[in-house]
């Protein structure tokens, strides 16, 4: 099961790397606004409207759909990704899934973990990670909610850490999920 999670993480990280390499939007005074995504069961506050995309990811257990919500502020990418693995993932220890996702992210970015803490979102298991490589700083929070993996992240240049990273990450909330 961990291989499947690592595969999705790898695809997500590739997509995020492309976003962060693309020409960034100029920094601006932003008005933070809450955005609700009931189909994916969450609410989050972004300083600018995010771009929403979907990507089918092949895994050894069949394809899964990854939903990405990305906003750029200056040289920083703010990101939420949602992947519903279904009932098979709900039967796996969430801490093992989260550890596999973290390992995939850190390995793909060739980053070093600065801090790692188990967290929770209500009764749901989570993991908060701060990491850095030679050029980028990563503030990451992962949550397993039943069979759904939520990844929240802020990726910024190492020399220009995003001052509102905590504000963005703390704004993530679960809301009732609606049928797609």
Describe this protein's structure.
Helices cover 26% and strands 43% of the residues. By secondary structure, it is of the alpha+beta class. The chain has one domain: Protein Transport Mog1p, Chain A (3-Layer(aba) Sandwich), CATH 3.40.1000. The strands form two sheets. Strands 3-4-5-9-8-7-6 form a seven-stranded antiparallel beta sheet. A hairpin with a 2-residue loop joins strand 4 and strand 5. Helix 1 packs across helix 3. About 10% of the residues have low confidence.
Uncertain regions: pLDDT < 50 for 5+ in a row?
A: 11-28
Name the quaternary structure.
Answer: single chain
In total, how many beta strands? Answer: 10
**Given the structure, what is the number of helices?**
4
């Amino acid at each position: 099961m961990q291989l499947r999670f690592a595969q999705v993480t790898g695809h997500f990280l590739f997509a995020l790397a492309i976003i962060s390499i693309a020409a960034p939007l100029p920094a601006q005074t932003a008005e933070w606004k809450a955005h609700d995504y009931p189909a994916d069961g969450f609410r989050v506050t972004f300083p600018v409207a995010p771009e929403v995309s979907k990507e089918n990811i092949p895994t050894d257990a069949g394809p899964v759909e990854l939903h990405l919500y990305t906003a750029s502020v200056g040289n920083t990418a703010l990101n939420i990704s949602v992947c519903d693995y279904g009932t098979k993932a709900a039967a796996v220890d969430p801490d093992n899934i989260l550890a596999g996702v973290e390992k995939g992210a850190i390995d793909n970015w060739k980053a070093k973990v600065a801090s790692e803490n188990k967290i929770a979102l209500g009764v749901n298991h989570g993991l908060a990670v701060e990491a850095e490589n030679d050029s980028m700083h990563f503030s990451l929070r992962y949550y397993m909610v039943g069979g759904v993996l939520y990844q929240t992240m802020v990726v910024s240049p190492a020399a220009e850490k995003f001052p509102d990273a905590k504000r963005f990450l703390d704004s993530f909330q679960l809301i009732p999920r609606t049928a797609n």
